[in-house]
Specification:
InterPro entries: Ig-like_fold, PKD/Chitinase_dom, PKD_dom_sf. It holds the Pfam family K319L-like_PKD. This is PKD/Chitinase domain-containing protein. The chain is an all-beta fold and 415 residues long. It has four domains: 81 residues, Immunoglobulins (Immunoglobulin-like, Sandwich), CATH 2.60.40; 86 residues, Immunoglobulin-like (Sandwich); 77 residues, Immunoglobulin-like (Sandwich); 84 residues, Immunoglobulins (Immunoglobulin-like). 3% of the residues lie in helices and 55% in strands. It contains one helix and 33 strands. Strands 17, 19, 20, 22, 23 and 24 form a six-stranded mixed sheet that branches. It is flat and about 95 Å long. The termini are far apart.
Amino acid sequence: MRVALLCLLVLLAAPTGVLATDGPPLADAGLDQRGTLDRPVYLDGTGTTDPDGTLDDYRWRVEGPSGTAVPLDCETCVRTRFVPRTLGRYTVALTVTDDAGHTATDRLYVRVGTSGAVGSVGDVAVALDGPRTATVGDTVRYRARVNVTERPAALEWRIDGRVVRTRAAAAADAAVLEYTVRERGRYRVNVTATDAAGDRATASLNTTATGTASDGVPQGPQPTVTGPRLLTGGVDSATYRLDSTDGSYVDWFLDDRRVGEGRAVAVSLTPGTHALHAVRQTSQGPVRLTFAGNETGVVVDPGPTLDVAVLHGGDALSVDARAVDPVGDLDVLALSVDGERVDTASARDDGAVRLNGTYAFAAGTHEVVVSASDARGQSARVARNVTIGDGAPTVECTETTPITWLPPVLVCEVV
């Protein structure tokens, strides 16, 4: 009996430990933001943590004001961005998964307006963009952008309280008002959007007119676009300006798509060749503004990308390297050993090149460099000390296609 009682006391006195379990991660999509129409909104999930494990996957999703999905630069990156194309509230969700398969989701909201005037009532939002200064004789343009939950019914334009246009929202010219400035002074432009439910929102801005009608006629040299025409080294955005302006309304176009207005514009560019120009509105009609010499070209060249899948020694030097260039101006892929070039491969028409082979060298340790360069002198390189000869490990590689719709991959092992 004493033995049984002692065992019972020991069991009761033993610490009541609880088996630890892996909990879910703590998702952090960041704080609510305000965005600008047609300008990137940046998202940062680096605040996400997993107290008892590691994070395996990030998944971003953005829904626009109408509930449709909005494309992102990268849906599975820790940091990413998107460009809002309509006014209103965007819902951003970040879902993370840890190494145990647990998930967590955090949301934030981005309210998007424009750099101009914005009016919002209930579910109706309207933004108004246009010049703040004008010259008498100029024909200036004002643009309205509307976002509503219900189908928009009409847009009404007023200048100094006087109705100058009313259009059904579906009309092709409803969102643009062209107005010829007749006299000096300050005037006020209003645009009112009405939806099918009768809700209304109004945006307003003021424009100051100076000069005389003759001042509106373009005479002499026109403003010139300034800014970088060659972007290299991974740079993919730039700001362009006019070297002078008289305050006339200016539109900016990239590859014939309107990307901004005013004296300067900031643009994001993809690799390749683009055409950039501005259009100045005058009483004599639109005037096209370009870089000096009537040039419009802008080239984005991030340089070559080099992937060295195999670079090993053994009985001989084994190399398998690939290089690509997004703009197709890859020049050469080269292999150098101990400072001497031993092999090269030229790029194909698609801008890609592969160097694959086995090379015999004297026993010992050699400095091996694989480099890719493009026509603009940009390069990428991988350098490694490789041992050749008895006792050096040998690597055998085979090419396989584990998923039929993906490119083949190399699987290597030391033997």
